[in-house]
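Hey forum,

I'm writing up a methods section and want to include a predicted complex as supplementary material. The small molecule is fe (ii) ion. I've pasted the protein sequence and the SMILES. Can someone with a working setup run it? I'll credit the forum in the acknowledgements.
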Amino acid sequence: MSTYLENNSIATGESQADPFSLLSLVAALESVTSAPSLEEIYAWLEKAEVSIEELQPYSGFKEGNYWRHRVCRNQFVEMLVLCWRPGQRTPIHDHNGSHGGVKVCQGMLWETTFYYDPVAGLEYKSAREHAAGSVTGSDVPDIHQLGNPDVSEQDLITLHVYAPPLGVLHTYKPGSAKIDLYTPDDIDS
Ligand SMILES: [Fe+2]
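Reply by user p_vandermeer:
Happy to help. Structure tokens for the complex are below, copy them as they are.
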């Protein structure tokens, strides 16, 4: 983990104590030569202090669904900004072999996690809220649903790092053992 941080510090001319801007995060992700671990992703996101100005090129909302904006991607890792109006949420999904971390930049992130049993089907496990500045994430094979709660009455902006980059995801329905495939909409990202 420290190797990436040190390399990036040299590349960006920053000291270890400096917070990670979005530009520094991009430099760190572009320097990797293998998929970073979940611990490395958490360390980057916890250090990150991304301003609203830096997020501006990736900030855009849609009425029908949350909006994914890709910041960067290579064969090992990708980073996206997701913008959510109140009431918008993902399907219940896993990341099909990828792990990832999420930093809440603005607003309140709501996360529900689930158990999957091939016989009993999908069962509710836990629910949490993550305030601005929080970092959360999911390992393989975690199943979760993210969203901006209706009651928040504010927009939500989140920063996501996935390794390896997401492909086709698995989606689930409560009480069902059926697993469907889902390709996130990247047309606008
Ligand atoms: Fe997810």
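Some notes you might quote in the supplement: The CA atoms of residues 86 and 151 lie 7 Å apart. The pocket of fe (ii) ion is lined by residues 93, 95, 138, 144, 146 (CB under 6 Å).
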